[in-house]
Design a protein that fits this description.
25 helices; single chain; three-stranded antiparallel sheet; alpha/beta; eight-stranded mixed sheet
Length: 648
Amino acid sequence: MKRRKRSRTLGPLWLRLVMLLGGSLCMGMAVAVAVQWVVTGSVGDIREWFEKWPTYLLLTGVLCGAVVFTLGALLGRLWLSALLVSAVGLLLALVDYFKTTINGTPLALADFGLATQLGDVAGVAGELHPPEDFWRALIALCICAALLFLFRRLTAVTGRARFLTFSISLALTLGLFSAQGAQAAGAVFQVDVNTRLDAANSHDTYGLLLSLWRDSCLQAKKSPEGYSEAYMQDVLARIDEILAEDPVSREEPAVRPNVIMVLSESFYDLTRLPDLQFERDPLENFHALEGESISGTFHSHYLGYGTGYLEMSMLYGITELDLGAGTNICFLEDDIYDRLDALPEQYTKGGGYTAEMLHAFDNSLYNRTVTYPRLGFSKLLFHEDMKQMDLQEPLFGGYYMRDAYLYEAALNEMKEINDSGERAFLYLITMENHQPFNADKFDYLCQIDVTSDTLSEEDMAIVRVMLEGITRADQALGKLTDALRDSPEPTIVVYFGDHRPNLFMTDGETVYTKLGLCPSNDTVDWTLEEVEDLYSTDYLIWANDAALLQGQAGTRRDSSITAVGPQLLELTGQSVSRYWALLEKVSQVSLTNIDRYFVDGTGTPSTSAETADLSDEARELLQLREDVLYDALYGQQYITAAMNEPAP
């Protein structure tokens, strides 16, 4: 007698559909809570968040539940779809935790551009371990999935009903992740899906998953009102009028100088930190060179990370505020980088210059092998390329190539270019002072003694690593400028720190929190003045012939990631395109304009350009720049070719 096969289902179809829906929503809420558990590290924080904004957690649960329901209908096994969604949610939470640990900033949609390079990112971040709350959240979600497994016959849908259920749920779920669906869901759950926020504020308000969902559903970059060919021709005419009315002072030097731009990893004047007493000046070369240079505060867009994004802003003149929410500035469509001539092309297209990039690491990150050739660089040299050179300087410093080795390689390249009859435009990216700042990074060596009345000995061990890295950067800078003093080739050096290191102490707080420069790691709690301070480093523009600085040697002038390029063009008397002539004008009224904050041309910070005390003329310049970039990046490129033509 044949044994009767047990049915996969139990109960009528309507009951199973109700159980499928109920189980999905419950699992969705479980995933939403578990993700925030990992992100915040506290169930109490989740409770406070829910009490403050109850609809935000509910919408997160609905979104997760919709995905669980759809996958459950597709697979015919709700418990399996619950495990899959749980795995994805916990993975996102873990990446957010690691990113916050490394850089002090939460996971943003733009970071997904680096998803295929996650291993390389982790490689330069040091040893990472999941927090204990990750394992607790994992166990809790596994228990929830196990309960669904026990009730699997009550949630199973088969045959045509399963196909129909999946089809309807897929359409509804995709609708929730569309702009129209987001508008409807936002209205019901009181979620603003129109206002762009920086990642820290967005995560603090909406939580990780809902913040990512908002960015994915925010409306695309809005076109200027009345955008058309006629509108853009009026923009072009107005730009020409402004450039003709008040031309940028430009004195062509008697000789064309070589240009060496040095992005010095995590370099800044750490002697300005309170409660640190140094045996002697760790920046003796930098401080001495300030008397021969144009120098000052250098406004960055990030703290602790973002080097590749900063390079693109500096070399191409755009920031992520110019792009749609969640867009990665390093991973745009390839041809976009060809549309506007970049900073190096202001030198190479005018003839007589060769542009090269030298990076003291490998070519794995930030899409540099794609973007840099399109920005005008004819040669890219990475760590392995320079290792083959027969140089005098020792190769390694800490975990990475020594700055001094990189500079020696650059001087060799400059000589080759000069010997060919060309001038050199070299863009250098250092690594010796890159994180991680583990106590053994420099074999526990610290050339300069440092003490503190506030920090513990364990924390001071980390501070000494930062101190040694910046000391070595300063010493390498001294070697570079000494070599150039002996060179007959006129050369300008632009030296700047891309951002400060987000130096974490043994208890998870940063050195800035410990020393009283900010109240916590969460930038949402910072005042505008604290943001301006910690989102800044130092820079100088030095020349081996003071005449190249046009009488500005020894002067102070605030600059920034987006202002130093126009500043250099002004010094070298370079003939520029309309686009860069416009950027020169804009840099006089705006040093920094990003989601996080705005800094005007005098160095005064505001929360945004809208709240800044700007003249009508300054606001017009910002609008003209925005119109030009919209036309080039998202519009019909009505005037893009004209913007690449020489300024009138």
